[in-house]
Amino acid sequence: MKAFVIRADWTPKPEYKVSDWEKKERIAYRANMVFKNPTWGVEDFPDPKIGPDEVLVKVKACGVCGSDVHMLRKEKDSDYIYFGGWAGFPAIIGHEWAGVVAEVGKDVNSISVGNLVTAEEVQWCGGCDVCRAGWLNLCKNVTQLGFETRNPGAMAEYIKVKEKYAWKLDALKDAYSNENDILEAGSLVEPTSVAYEGIFTVAGGLRMPGGHAAVFGTGPIGLASIQLLKTGGAAKIIAFEPMKFRAELAKKMGADYVFDPTQVDPVKTMKELTRGQGCAMLVEAAGLPSVTIPIMVQSVAPAGKIVQIGMGADRPALDALAVQYAESSIYGSMGHSGHGDFGNVISLMGARRINVLPAITARYSLKETATAIENADKGNAKVTVKL
Asked: Of 36, 224, 269, 372, whose CB neighbour count within 10 A is largest?
C-alpha cells in the first residue's frame, strides 16, 4: 500500500536524560529533545495484517493535526523537529480519520465489513491500575496511533485497529445524507473528542450554565471547543485568534466575539464584555501556554476553570496567588479515550447539536500530503487528505 512516512535521526540532546524505556522503544516523551533531520514522503509500505481482535479499514478521510505540522517543522536554531510531544520514527502519521471496514478478525463481534468507522488514537491496555480506575488516556502501557513505528497511522490506504478502539458512525446518518459527509465528519470525531475530554470529562463543564467562556486559538480544537461550550450552556463565547481566516471561521461556527490578541488587551476585553465577572471557563487551544496562561489567570471568574488542551513545549510563569484569590482551577487534559467521549461526540454530531464540517477548508490526495501539511501550517483551519 501507499503511505506517508516520516523518518528522523535518533540524536538525543546532551541536556536531555533519556529513560531506559525510551532507549528500548526508540520513542521519546519529548521528541524535540531527541529526533533531528526529519525527512518524509509517500512510500510503498507492507499491507497491514490483522489479528483475531482487529479490523482492517480502507481509509477515506484523514485530517492534518497540528502535531503532524510540527513533526515536519524544525526548531529555529537547529535541525531538531519542532514537535515537543511523544513520538518515535519512522512513523506513518495520521490519527484523525474515518473509513470503511474491509476485513474483520475471527473474534470481532460488534463490527462488520462495510461499516463506517473511526478509532481512538490513544490506545490503552485496559489492564493496568490506571486503566482500571477509568483514566484510559493515562494508561501505563499506552501506544499512540500515528505517532510511532509500532502503531502505524491513517495517512495510508489501509489501517488496522483493535475492535475495542473502533467506533461505528451510524448515528451520523441522522445528520448527513451522503457517505462522503459522514466520513468527513467522522474524521473530525477525534479532534472534537480531544476538546470534549478537556471541557467535560476532565473539567466537568461549566459550573453552572450561563457563565461566560473564552477560547484561545481557533484551529480545529478551538473551533470544536466553541461549539461544545455553546451546547454546554455558555453565555457569551469570546475567541482570540490572530489569523484572519481562522477568526472568521470561529465567528461562523458560533463565537459571539473574535479578537486578534495582538491588537487588543485580552484581559481588559474579557472584563468589559463580561461586565467585570470574568470567564467561568477559559480553554487553551493555542499551544502557547507561556502567553495564554498568565492572561487566563487574570481573567477567570471566581471559582472559574482554566482548561489546558493545546500542546506546547514552553513553560509558563504562573501567578499562584491569583489562582488562590479566585479559588479557580487549572485542568490539564490529554487525549480523548474513556468515559464515552467518542460515543458522546458522535451522538452530538448525529443530533445536530454540533456541526464541525465547516472547519474543513481544503482537501488533498495522499500523494499531496506534504503540500496538505504545508497548507495547514499556513493557517487553514482544517486540511483533510482524501483517499
From this structure: 224
Nearest to 35 by CA among 102, 77, 95, 86: 86
Exposed, middle or buried, 324 (CB in 10 Å: 0-12/13-18/19+)? exposed
| Cell numbers representing residue 230 in the block | 455553546
**CA–CA distance, 49 with 45 (Å, rounded to integer):** 12
Rounded Cα distance between 178 and 166, Å, is: 21
Please list the active-site residues.
67, 70
Task: Compute the distance between CA of residue 38 and CA of residue 290 in angstroms, rounded to an integer.
Answer: 26
2-192+337-386 fold:
Quinone Oxidoreductase; Chain A, domain 1 (3.90.180)
Radius of gyration of the chain from its Cα atoms, rounded to whole angstroms: 20
Q: Report pLDDT digits (tens) over 86-132.
A: 999 999 999 999 999 999 999 999 999 999 999 999 999 999 999 99
The alpha helices in the chain, defined as continuous H runs, are: 20-25, 66-72, 129-132, 179-187, 189-196, 220-231, 244-252, 266-273, 289-299, 320-326, 341-350, 369-377
CA dist., res. 275 & res. 301, Å (int) = 11
Where do you find CATH 3.40.50.720 in the chain? 204-332
Instruction: Give burial (CB, 10 Å; 0-12/13-18/19+) of 52.
Output: exposed
